[in-house]
Design a protein that fits this description.
alpha/beta; LytR_CpsA_psr; 4-stranded mixed β-sheet; transmembrane helix; disordered N terminus; globular
Length: 353
């Protein structure tokens, strides 16, 4: 019962951070791809350079240090695994320190983005924040997002690596508030809403069943809300996955790709909110990645939730039960560059496409 006692007092809290940080790495990749396809020049290139320079970079060794027993990655393996963290703005506006350990920071959203070696697709795996797992370094079993409290991003990364026996190459963090400016810059996105629902806080935002055009504050509410649903965080994850897909689709549309000024405006909205390790943020890495993915389309983005064994109770807590079998399968597929085959075998309830 010692492990249970560690988590019985857990109350989810939001990241403590400023609102001016970050959009999804998947969107960053899309921007790099768009830049590569369209080409840059003159004043346009200058605007993009200024936009990319506004991103915040941190030393990779500070947030992703090596450790004894870390999963090995073959130097010839050209795939890339990116840990993507998301959170709402904190009430006190405290800045998120990605290098901190033993903090009160917790992630409201966790995704592992896998880019295969052949670059034929992108796999975006959401990890339920209440997934009950073994936290390394003697912390026992707890909800996975509490790893941030016990040891910051380094321990969260170590937890996921130990679950799947897979090496995480890079990390980025994001604030959902950044979606407001992004969606306005691209003229909004259309989502397919499965049910009528309103936000839990005063019902000031309501969404009708069917196709909904969202941007600005409504887009923020779409990706943030979970209390309005009987399935809570499960539905929020599905909404986030659909949002990613539709944003990427809009970025790759002729409306955006055919308008260099709009691309520059999107980059201007996105990059000031980006925080990532300095390897991922290296200009040559980004351009090289974009050049390798020039044939990528929205249909090549596959989103899904890490399969689990349902929900359960640990003490007074409701938790998501982890499935070690699926952890091992996914790790093996990422290491063996066979995610396409594994994705097809996923139970339909965990797919976001």
């Amino acid at each position: 019962m010692a492990d249970d006692a560690q988590t019985s007092g857990y109350v989810p809290r939001r990241f403590h951070r400023r609102p001016r940080k970050v959009v999804r790495v998947i969107l960053l990749s899309a921007l790099v791809l768009v830049v590569t396809v369209v080409g840059v020049g003159g004043a346009y290139a200058s605007k993009l350079q200024q936009a990319f320079a506004s991103a915040t970079l941190v030393e990779k060794t500070d947030i992703l240090p090596t450790y004894e027993g870390q999963p090995f990655k073959d130097p010839g393996d050209g795939s890339r695994n990116i840990l993507l963290l998301g959170a709402d703005k904190s009430e006190d506006g405290t800045e998120l320190d990605l290098t901190a350990t033993g903090t009160t920071q917790r992630s409201d959203s966790m995704m592992l983005v896998h880019i295969p070696q052949n670059r034929k697709g992108i796999y975006v795996m959401s990890i339920m924040r209440d997934t009950y797992v073994q936290i390394p370094d003697g912390h026992g079993r707890a909800k996975i997002n509490s790893a941030m409290q016990f040891g910051g991003v380094p321990l969260l990364r170590k937890t996921i690596e130990s679950m799947m026996d897979v090496h995480i190459d890079n990390v980025a963090a994001l604030d959902f508030n950044s979606f407001k400016g992004l969606t306005k810059a691209i003229g909004g996105v259309t989502v397919d809403n499965p049910i009528d629902w309103c936000t839990d806080s005063g019902k000031e935002y309501c969404f009708k069943k069917g196709k909904e055009q969202i941007e600005g504050q409504r887009a923020l509410r779409w990706v943030r809300e979970r209390h309005a649903f009987l399935t809570g965080d499960y539905q929020r994850v599905k909404n986030q996955q659909q949002f990613i897909k539709q944003v990427f689709k809009k970025l790759m549309s002729s409306e955006v790709m055919g308008n260099p000024n709009k691309i520059a405006d999107v980059a201007k909205q996105v990059m000031p909110f980006v925080t990532m390790d300095n390897e991922l943020g290296d200009e040559q890495v980004l351009i090289g990645l974009g050049m390798q993915m020039t044939s990528l389309r929205a249909s090549d983005i596959h989103s899904f939730t890490l399969p689990n064994a349902g929900t359960g109770q640990v003490g007074a807590q409701s938790v998501v039960l982890n499935s070690p079998e699926w952890d091992r399968k996914l790790g093996k597929a990422m290491r063996g560059d066979s995610m396409e085959t594994l994705y097809k075998s996923l139970p339909s309830e965990f797919k976001g496409d």
